[in-house]
Amino acid sequence: MTLAFSGEEIASQVEEHLPGSIVDSSQDSLVVNSESWLAVATFLKDTPGLDFDYLTSITAVDYYDYFEMVYHLTSLKHNHSLVVKTRCYEREKPSLPSVVSLWRGADLQEREIYDLMGISFDGHPNLKRIFLWQGFQGHPLRKDYL
Amino acid sequence: MAIKTEPFVINVGPQHPSTHGVFRMRLTLDGEVIVDVEPVLGYLHRGIEKLAEGRTYTQNIPFTDRLDYLASMSNNLAYVLAVEKLAGIPVPERAEYLRVIIAELQRIASHLVGVGAFLNDCGAFMTPLLYMFREREKILDLFEMVCGQRLTYNYMRIGGVSHDIPAEFLPALDRFVTTMPGFIDEYDQLLAENEILLARAKGVGILPEELAINISASGPVLRGSGVRWDIRKADPYSVYDRLEFDIPTGSVGDCYDRYWVRIQEMRQSVRIIRQAVEQLPPGEVRTEVPHLLHPPVGEAYGHIEAPKGELGFYLVSDNSIAPYRFHVRAPTLINLTALRDMMIGWKVADAVAIFGSIDICLAEVDR
Predict the structure, then answer these.
(1) Which chain B residues are within 8 Å of A101, Cβ to Cβ?
(2) Which residues of B fall within a CB distance of 8 Å from A83?
(3) Do A76 and B213 count as a contact with CB atoms less than 8 A apart?
(4) Domain of A20?
(5) Distance from B192 to chain A by nearest Cα, in Å?
(6) Could you give the percent of chain B with pLDDT greater than 90?
(7) Does any CB of chain B come closer than 8 Å to the CB of residue A140?
(8) Is residue A45 part of a domain?
(9) Would you place residue B2 in the very low, low, confident or very high pLDDT band (cuts 50, 70, 90)?
(10) pLDDT tops 60 at residue B129
(11) Using a CB-CB distance cutoff of 8 angstroms, which residues of chain B are in contact with residue A106?
(12) Which of B209, B225, B325, B366 to mutate to test the interface with A (most CBs of A within 10 A)?
């Protein structure tokens, strides 16, 4: 990477356009309010100079109190990268906006997270289990699944 | 009078010779033309991410061998890079060079299988594949010399590699590097202008550049569509920044371009190995690390340009002996997102060739 943006730099830019969307920021990542996530994602993708046109990877981590989604974004145009996180505090029926409309590369990855971590994604075109069979009980990657 | 037609659903796989493992597609056809594709995955799901959360950092290295088993060395490398980043472990220079040499040999081996299997799917049955297995065998012999294994190597270790190379390795590598360009020329001679290949691959299964980026394609699939993007250049790891090589890219994004990119990448790999052998310094091959590693609380994403695309490991540590979260960014799973776009509108016979040109490994897709 010629430049890995610091979370703080981007946070101030985002906060200017979308006040109240940033929860926390650190040197290497930025945490976004889950309600504003889709707007922030659109901003990151379409703003000239940022141009995060490539969604490298999506991960979900179960911290018991909340689920944390981790998005690794890259700009192939400028060769820089950023880690964005968003949290979901609901455990029974966790749900977050889908980013398939922005980056279609999220399609199979969001299905995987739905399958193994049990987070559903609003706006996903084909949200169903991908590795386990339909009718499987539970979500194995959750920490309380044994 | 218009003839009434009905779409017809055909099931391909999971047990089918052209699916390279246990992959299943539900093709919806209108006559011979594909109107919809639905990949059905999970037949080889072993829950590696969950299993890894219950094992120590070192015990997880053999699991990575069992992701893309045609490129185990690359998987080892990506994982140990992520752990080293997480725990801040330095790697001796000699080990870095050995890693590069081994990873590039692995790239050649993986591309040989990928291209050979693709040609099989195109109808050049078995002959090209066996030619390519001839050279792959020599690479496996080299790997056997360094670690005693031919498929699941477990060679890269946190902080270096498991053993230094034996005395007979470098002369054998030299013989391989000297002869390999001639073999690649031979493939080119047999295949580049081959009627079967041209008819089955040129202009078939086009993936436009913009779409390739949007669906997060990586590796030869992305580069075949004309995007000059390679992690070895974009975010150099090990000692790739000291080595000279080019990134071959396609122009159209059809099956032929993906095939062509793989052939050219083999030439570049030979070039990289030559330079790495020349620069190979003496010294240690492994930093001493504690048997039970406790990385500080935090997270790390380590990624490499594996033969099939960007392979990344996202690790979260809670300062215990096992990773709190172990996620694999599997290149071939994400490349499969493009399958539907590439197949729609083509004939059912092309489906096999298009699928073959992505070069997937189901053990990595399903994990």
Answers:
(1) none
(2) 301
(3) yes
(4) 3-92
(5) 30
(6) 35
(7) yes
(8) yes
(9) confident
(10) yes
(11) 216
(12) B325
* The Cα angle at residue B225 between residues B224 and B226, in degrees rounded to 5: 90
**Could you say which of A104, A112, A116 has the minimum Cβ distance to residue B215?**
A104
A141 vs B213: CB contact, 8 Å cut-off? no
Residue A59 pairs in a beta bridge with A70
In a domain, A67, yes or no: yes
The structural architecture, per CATH, of the domain B8-366 is Orthogonal Bundle (1.10)
Q: Answer whether B312 sits within 8 Å of A79, measured CB to CB.
A: no
Q: Which is higher by pLDDT, B39 or B196?
A: B39
Which of B234, B334, B366 shows the shortest C-beta gap to A105? B334
Cα B142 from Cα B73, distance rounded (Å): 12
The Cα B24–Cα A142 span in angstroms is 27
Chain-centre distance for alpha carbon A17: 19
Say if residue B19's pLDDT is above 70. Answer: no
β-pairing, A80-88 vs B298-306, is unpaired
Half-sphere exposure of A111 (CA within 13 A, CB side): 22
Task: Inspect the interface and report whether the beta carbons of B214 and A103 lie closer than 8 Å.
Answer: yes
Judge whether A131 lies within some domain. no
- Model ipTM value: 0.89
Residue B192 pLDDT greater than 80, yes or no: no
- pLDDT-derived band at B205 (thresholds 50, 70, 90) equals confident
The whole-angstrom distance between A21's CA and the closest CA on chain B is 23
What CATH code is carried by the domain that includes residue A52?
3.30.460.80
- Peptide bond preceding B248: is omega within 30 degrees of 0, i.e. cis? no
Distance (Å, rounded) from C-alpha B330 to C-alpha B365? 6
Angle between helices B255-279 and B93-122 in degrees, nearest 10: 160
Q: Do B337 and A107 touch (CB under 8 A)?
A: yes
Could you give the number of structural domains in chain A? 1
CB contact under 8 A, A56 and B303: yes
| Assigned token pair, B130 | 């066996």
Give alpha helix (H) positions in B38-126: 48-52, 61-65, 72-87, 93-122
Please tell me if residue A132 touches chain B, with a CB cutoff of 8 Å: yes
Q: In 3D, which of A141, A143, A116, A146 has the Cα closest to residue A130?
A: A116
